[in-house]
Amino acid sequence: MSGGAPKRAGRTKSGKPRAGTGGKGRDKLQGKGPTPPARLRPGHPAQRRAEAAARAGTRRAGRSGPGDGPRNPAEMVAGRNAVLEALRAGVPAAALYAGPRRDADDRVREAMDLAAAAGVPMVETGRAELDRLTGGSVHQGLALRVRPYVYAAAGDLTERARAAGVPALVVALDGVTDPRNLGAVTRSVAAFGGHGVLIPARRSARVTAGAWKASAGALARVPVARVPNLARALAAYQQAGLFVVGLDAGGDTPVADLSVADAPLVIVVGSEGRGLSRLVAERCDVLARIPMAADTESLNAGVAAGIALHAVAASRAAQHVP
Q1: Residues sharing a CB contact under 8 Å with residue 181, sequence separation 6 or more, in sequence order
Q2: What are phi and psi of 179, to 5 degrees?
Q3: Cβ pair 175, 149 in contact under 8 A
Q4: Which of 58, 112, 117, 103 is nearest to 84 (CA)?
């Protein structure tokens, strides 16, 4: 018997040795990144539980109990660009819905990464279900359910000022129907130290994904209160010691010359073109105007509110009002 290692059974290599890849296949050796949380891993029990909770939330959205206060119905943002923009803006979301046959698309990947980072569960669903959830909108296999916004009470806004020990500064919107204007007004309120935004329940913009995006995150810091009747809510504010200033092109007082700027204040902004409604204008203590060139069209609500808030803040600073 001869010595040495025993021969292995099977085929032996033959032919010329193969050349290496020269590093061209290195990307195939890279890892797939950190393991996602269990609730985001398809097929994991935790992911199935999160999916069930998201579906249950969709069925419950828009239904509130007697003590829940006014809410928005659930809003579905449909389409890859719209979903991605909403997630980039930090819009509070309850679930990201994705179709089973997604193309390799950078927008989809980024949306999924942003949802995972924000702890938003992802639900894989069929096209028919996406069609139903989005009301037949063009969704491109991707939709986002935005959390219903919980509105504050009118008294919560003045309570914030009282707790801070400063004169109240509230902006009320009369007939403003564009959610982007609501978001822009909220952003100005946050910038100039205001305590909230007041809107009527009817014929008014609501807090939607568009409002969140326009607010640049201010809606997370500034409460929005919704009331059944704006004129009555303004009367209640007056009884609580607040002055009501309406912005009107025909007002006698320039907004920079308000004698009540240092007092607790509500600034009422009307819709572009129509302005303040008759009942709300009659409720105002002062009608103030924003001086403009004679041939200039009316300002939209977001711009008008920003100018008025700046004027009040400058007047309070000059008089050393906190």
Answers
A1: 173, 205, 214, 300, 301, 302
A2: -60, -30
A3: no
A4: 112
- Which CA distances in Å does 30 have to 22, 255, 277? 16, 62, 64
**Global pTM?**
0.72
Q: Which residue has the tokens 């809107």?
A: 199
Q: Which mean pLDDT values do the consecutive 10-residue runs of the chain (322 residues) have?
A: 51 58 53 55 60 54 38 73 88 88 77 91 88 86 90 95 94 94 95 96 91 89 95 96 93 90 95 88 93 74 93 88 62
C-alpha torsion sign, points 236, 240, 241, 242: negative
> Is the Cβ–Cβ distance between 80 and 105 less than 8 Å?
yes
Residue 198 is encoded by which pair of tokens? 């007041």
